[in-house]
Predict the structure.
Amino acid sequence: GACGVFFKKGYHPTSIREIGQACGMSMGQLYHYISCKDDVLFLVHKHMQQVWYEYLKKSDLEQIEDPVKKLKQALYHSLQFMVENRKLIQFVYSESKYLDKKYLKIVLEMDNKNVLGFWRSLLEDLSAVTTIKGDIDIVSSIVVYLQAFLALRGWTLKGKERKDQEDCLINFILRGLGVISNAEETSN
């Protein structure tokens, strides 16, 4: 409920009363769970982390043995999440600066463990069969950031097929990792 109001009005213009109404809760009920609007912002960030990680875990990746194919499928799956949850991704990226420092630390730890950990694991598996260009910790952060491109900058691609956007971005990532060459580009 809070996300809907935040997406429509923005973080700062939204009142606690509006959040309560959107959630179908009285002010008393809402204050039972939170003490201020900053708590809601933290819960939105936490929710995004959990939803993204659960989405990644639900893919059929465990059945794929080839690390290159597994990475490629994970990228397609994650990009679908990014597009489907565009408003949430945009909100989290734009409003993170308002998180209380203690909450920011928790969110960043969750991201490092869950999201970055997921990609780090895939890249470690990949490095067992091919040489990856770059440090795995740095590269995993870059891969995560590049996936947000469609949610954050997709507006610049009006008229381009979503599949073409995904293929281009995935091929860009795979070339950057040194997994494929320009001649080897493929689609899903």
Notes: The chain has a mean pLDDT of 88. The two ends are 35 Å apart (CA to CA). The chain has ten helices and no strands. The CA atoms of residues 57 and 118 lie 9 Å apart.
